[in-house]
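<backbone_tokenisation>
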Amino acid sequence: MFWKRWFKQNTDEQSVHELYAAAVAQARQPGFYRDFAVPDTLDGRFDMIVLHVFLLVNRLSGKGEAAARQAQALFDLLFADMDQSLREMGVGDLSVGKKIKTMAAAFYGRSAAYRDALKSGDEGALRAALSRNIFPEGGADERQIGALAAYVRRVYEGLETQPIETLMTGKADFGAAPSMSEPSVREAAPEEAKETL
């Protein structure tokens, strides 16, 4: 892939390469497509990469100038990779720019929705954002969407415990592979449960 060649030409960005490689590898976990019903298409795979890059960028954001540069470089690498992938698929030069702009807008929109839902702890909002963006044509049932939301919450909280210094070296731990054993609903206190009825 292009990002591997990009890395060879920019050896100072090894940590960014490693973070991106980790995000791509996690996005390719078979469980997303086999168990969670994420569409095994270009769009579906792009959305899973976006989700995992967002989780890394979100963790790096607001953690100082060096971390901000790391987050920006990770974003830039994502779209350099997408640009090259489109060209390798035969998309013309004039169309590539338009498609990249659309994909970047999608990244920003999804990031805002995921960030707001995760920070607020609103699991309904997180499920809605995942459903709207990853399953725009349906295909996943409530249990699958709930399990995906629980996975995203788990990874988000797991990354929050990882030192920024570790991420800056290119080491990111996304935890266990996704599976339908993810709890579909976070446990709530009896009073909270009553309020949701």
